[in-house]
Amino acid sequence: MFTHIRRLVAEEYSSANALDLTAGIHRHDRWSTFDQYRRSGEYCAARLREYGLDAVEQMAIPADGVTRIGDWIMPLAWDVEDAVLRVVAPRAGGGRILAHYREEPASLAMWSAPTPPGGAEVAVVYLEDGSREDDYAHVDVRGKAVFTHRSHGAVRGLAARHGAVGLITDYPACQDDALANATCWMNAWVDHHGWGFLKTDTPMWGFSLTREKGRYLERLLASGASVTVRADVASCLYEGEFTLSTGVIRGESADEVLAYAHAYEYGAEDNAAGCAAALEAARTLQRLIQKGALPRPKRTIRFMMSWECYGSIAWAVQRIYGRRNVVAGLCLDDLGGKQSLTGGAIKLILTPHCQASYTDYLAKELAAECFPSEEGLAYELTPWAGGTDHTVFEDPQFGVPMPWLSEHPARFHHTSLDEMDKIDPHRLGAEGVFAATYLYALANAGESEARWLAEGTCALWEERLASVVAAAQQGMDAAASAAEVHAAWQDADERLEYLSARGSEAIRSLMRLSRAPGVDGTAVEAAVDGRTGALESAARQHSEHLR
């Protein structure tokens, strides 16, 4: 159905430009400070303007540690000039630098509290774990730094509650040979649950060590000597803001198809490459429309880059809630990795049942065209899983079905090794071509595309019904009693009813496409009614067969 579009996109899409864009974003985001995030947002907005998009803006969002948007509280802003952690005692290790922010930005925890000028000298206490209350029963950590092999998220809250002023960890380097030379990007720095530091959280500094530095510190502590470190952190926590960069390719209506790629993370793969894929998709589609290779779409295509979840909730609450003008979206997070190094497979995470949609079938069919296994681009279709911005948009309050294109989890995720040398231009290009094709296909879909999507969505859910029947039949055949047979039948009957309802809702979601100019809404409705009827009939027949 959309092969012609894909071929045009593939001819125009520049993997080299996507790689350059990745580097341009990564050089700012890797510092994890709000002054660099501002530059990153400006860079993305400048590219959108350069590529000729309309309505380019940078929406300012508070970063004050108290403002609540939806059910998210916006964290405080944070900047840092430099930070160093060095051993000052025992004398044998005196002066050895364990971590240096300017040499490796991921060695310092985001939102690390400032130390007094000249640094703070504190004793180090070793906790093998530190994630349990009992670990602190016979250890005094007040006014000291805790050294642990556990992740910062598991230890930081308890350590702060017991009065520690600093946290030092060599996780995950201590556990994974592939990450032995890595430091962990510590982007969650709260007393309880969440990510960003709030005004109610306890100020504390933190450093991440490589395996070699961690073992060195552990040997010093094991020797029985008192170990003292000097932390010198020139940082600032303040009330500020961050931005959301966005621009559109105008369509014939105000309805939108949305591409969201979160920015402001340390890694090249996660997620400078996702932002780059979105920007190059914007350039590609705008160019194809400008030169007449593709007609102006029926719906507007919006491209958006901002902070993960914090940015998307702000946009969803302020610009989508109440308007419901976004018919579908695509989330781009964790892309372009060299599979031989990162180990991440291309994944399409489908929509949740609360937002069942025709987009699953479209994504499935386009993936088969865009990711040929003979080119080393094997992909997986994955049931819904949360974890990034699609979770926000797919909330029924906002109603945006948004498949997630990803390579998560990749080997170097949230570590200092997620650098530009891990990016594969060929893979990033294929993912970008998929994104651009998906976005334009939805933006320009009319009644013929709606009929095709209705038939395919119905077939997709009929496959799910058939799998329930096959599993039930197997269970009934293996049952040892009449009661077990009845239980297997009853469970299958309930599943068939449920999946029929969800599948029907996925087909009915195509009515969103009927609002655009030039689309015959009656024809779309007829296709929807026909396929929902067919799916419900199939569910009844399966149920009768099992009886």
| Shape verdict | globular
Count of domain modules: 3
Give the neighbour order of strands across the main sheet: 1-11-13-12-14-17-15-16
Separation of the first and last Cα atoms: 39 Å
| Number of E strands | 17
Over all CA atoms, what is the radius of gyration?
26 Å
Q: Into which percentage range does the β-strand content fall?
A: 15-25%
| CATH class call of the largest domain | Alpha Beta
Low-confidence stretches are none
- Could you give a short account of the major beta sheet? 8 strands, mixed
Classify the fold: give the CATH topology of the largest domain: Aminopeptidase
Helix content: 25-40%
Model description:
This protein is an alpha/beta fold and 547 residues long. The chain folds into 3 domains: 3-65 and 241-443, 3-Layer(aba) Sandwich (Aminopeptidase), CATH 3.40.630.10; 77-238, Glucose Oxidase, domain 1; 447-546. The protein contains 14 helices and 17 strands. An 8-stranded mixed sheet has the order 1-11-13-12-14-17-15-16, sandwiched between helices. Helix 4 (152-161) links the parallel strand 7 (145-148) and strand 8. The radius of gyration is 26 Å and the shape is globular. 54% of the residues are buried. The mean pLDDT is 97.
SSE map:
Layout: H1 3-12, H2 15-29, H3 34-50, E1 54-63, E2 68-69, E3 72-73, E4 77-89, E5 97-100, E6 120-127, E7 145-148, H4 152-161, E8 166-169, E9 205-208, H5 211-222, E10 228-238, E11 240-249, E12 256-263, H6 272-290, E13 300-307, H7 310-320, E14 326-332, H8 339-342, E15 346-349, H9 359-370, E16 379-382, H10 390-393, E17 404-406, H11 425-443, H12 447-478, H13 482-508, H14 521-546
